């Protein structure tokens, strides 16, 4: 389905406006799926220096009209950042999208798949998470941790300017964040704030310019650690912003969303663990709620393990 969009916004057909909105929802959702877990707990936790994590998993977002599935591999390295611990993560996602929508009595079907935009993320603790070896870490007791993070997408994903729906966004985003983590017995309570800032897609449907206002996100987590090092979190996130523009004309209002979820991480042995996650939208100003489910396997090595 091809469209030429360089015309007054009021003349765009209702079907095009509907698919534009679906495309924008997809472009907003793909970066979150890239993390393999949309509501991400333990960003500012401490870990022994030199430890590496490799994980592989699958995550799926579903509504009554579409399904987005992403197979994700990620690699994380824990390093010494000026005496405090830091982590560097690279995420490589591959996605499949299929959806249908009834417009004027006709069912319009869209599907695509391919490499999504990779994401790189660094998180550096500023206070309360000293850089420790594996042996030193055995006696570490967390109190209050304060940290910062910065994520960025790389627009290498599959993108075709003749398609309205793509798994690559053909634009960058950067996502700075600030967070705190407080230990109370076996519990860890986290609060984090982030902003997502997008570059323009100047090749949208044949040379049109698609832009988006920043999205601001607040996350909170209550994490319980079991004696066998398994942990479970209860998660909540609130996001606001993200109004979109086509050639400078607004085509959507500001988004506002509440989501709640949970994550369970269970150790198989000292090197391997399995993680299950789920979340659901409870409120959306633009009616783009979805359910999300994920499962991943994580392998730990290095740092004396």
Could you list some keywords that capture this structure?
single chain, 305 residues, mainly beta, Lipocalin, twelve-stranded antiparallel barrel, four-stranded antiparallel sheet, 2 helices, 57% strand, elongated, disordered N terminus
Explain this structure to me?
It is a single chain. The protein contains two helices and 17 strands. By secondary structure, it is mainly beta. It has a single domain, classed as Lipocalin. Strand 9 and strand 10 form a beta hairpin.
Topology:
Elements: H1 14-33, E1 52-62, E2 66-81, E3 84-103, E4 106-115, E5 119-127, H2 134-137, E6 144-153, E7 173-184, E8 187-198, E9 201-204, E10 208-212, E11 215-225, E12 231-241, E13 244-246, E14 249-250, E15 255-267, E16 272-284, E17 291-301
Antiparallel strand pairs: 1-2, 1-17, 2-3, 3-4, 3-5, 5-6, 6-7, 7-8, 8-11, 9-10, 10-13, 11-12, 12-15, 13-14, 15-16, 16-17
Quick description:
The chain has helices spanning 14-33, 134-137, and strands at 52-62, 66-81, 84-103, 106-115, 119-127, 144-153, 173-184, 187-198, 201-204, 208-212, 215-225, 231-241, 244-246, 249-250, 255-267, 272-284, 291-301. By secondary structure, it is mainly beta.
